[in-house]
Write a structure and sequence with these properties.
alpha/beta, 5-stranded parallel β-sheet, 5 strands
């Protein structure tokens, strides 16, 4: 049974939204991904959002651009967390998408990541699920430790290249 639904309004959103799927796969979280236009096929969209809870989903990650109603409408129908991913747009660089998603009315929150932030949407979904899953929480802690090690290795590489490190200056 899927735990996370990933929905986007167009196949042009797939490069960003696939990053969320990659993160979920990395953590072993089940998901289902689809494309539904809230504007062009509203009946299909309503059925998608209404049936998400009975499918066992705990989180929906919704990506949309321009008049980005998909995440907000998911949040209006689905009673559990929705994470909005604003897409970059040619006309306004994605700021239009960001404002459409983040400016929700009181009582209908959408957790919103950066423009094009598919990977962070995946990580946020994992963090939400980890609240009630100790194994997933341990995987998250390992992921964070791995990121820290990556930064330390990069800093060590600067030392190898002969640059004086920040810590040496103190």
């Amino acid at each position: 049974m899927a735990k996370v639904g990933i929905v986007m309004g167009s196949d042009s959103d797939l490069p960003v939204m696939s990053k969320a799927a990659e993160i979920l796969e990395q953590f072993g979280v089940e998901y289902e991904m689809t494309i539904i236009s809230a504007h062009r096929e509203p009946d299909a969209f309503f059925e998608y959002a209404k049936s998400a809870e009975e499918k066992g989903w705990k989180v929906i990650i919704a990506g949309a651009g321009m008049a980005a109603h998909l995440p907000g409408m998911c949040a209006a129908i689905f009673p559990l967390p929705v994470i909005g991913v604003p897409m970059h747009t040619k006309s306004l660089g994605g700021v239009d998408s960001l404002y459409s998603i983040v400016q929700m009315p009181s009582g209908i929150p959408v957790a919103t990541v950066a423009i094009g932030g598919g990977a962070n949407a995946g990580i946020l979904a994992v963090k939400i699920l980890a609240v009630s899953d100790p194994d997933l929480l341990e995987k998250l802690k390992g992921y964070s430790a791995g990121m820290k090690e990556g930064v330390i290795k990069k800093a060590d590489r600067l030392d190898e290249l002969g640059y004086k490190g920040y810590m040496e200056q103190m």
